Amino acid sequence: MTGTNGVPGGGAGGRTATGDTVAAVVRQWRAVHPDLDTGPIEIIGRVNRCAALLQQAEDAPLRGAGLSRAEFDLLGALRRTGRELTPGELARETFSSGAAVTKRLKQLTERGLVERRGDTRDRRVAHVRLTDAGRDLVDGILPEQLAYETAVLSGLGLLQQEELAGLLGELLAQLEGRLAAPPRA
Fold this sequence. Notes:
The chain has helices spanning 21-32, 39-58, 60-64, 69-81, 87-94, 98-110, 132-153, 158-180; strands spanning 114-118, 126-130. The protein is mainly alpha-helical.
């Protein structure tokens, strides 16, 4: 079978995974619109499907600790930067809205995992830091979370993982560059 890009086997460089759900969607679209290039669906559809499945599954260790992924991302940002951050800095570090960060910080403060202090020069500015309990929680969960993620990726060989990481990194850099720039009129 010749794919939509003229390569035997289908799009994406001729590599298809005929048993996944996206392959079925692509076959259906090809039947309805054989003249359209479904190559983008093969890539973006799979990235989206993988993201959805990983989101559901990867949070299991976090749920065991009573954390959401978003809460862990905030705690992790404070831990990996090793310094106090403002809510605005946390929003940028975690790709979250300011309102979402404020809500999560309130919950994490109530649980004793972070502390907020006002700026001595500008009372409108808050600084957030991990408490000892917050640091201990992140340090305790991170190895378990990484072990879980390693197990999820274990179906791919090391070279495949490196290749996938590189390709996704290139795509991400392109998208971040494109989406960060204001649209042209």
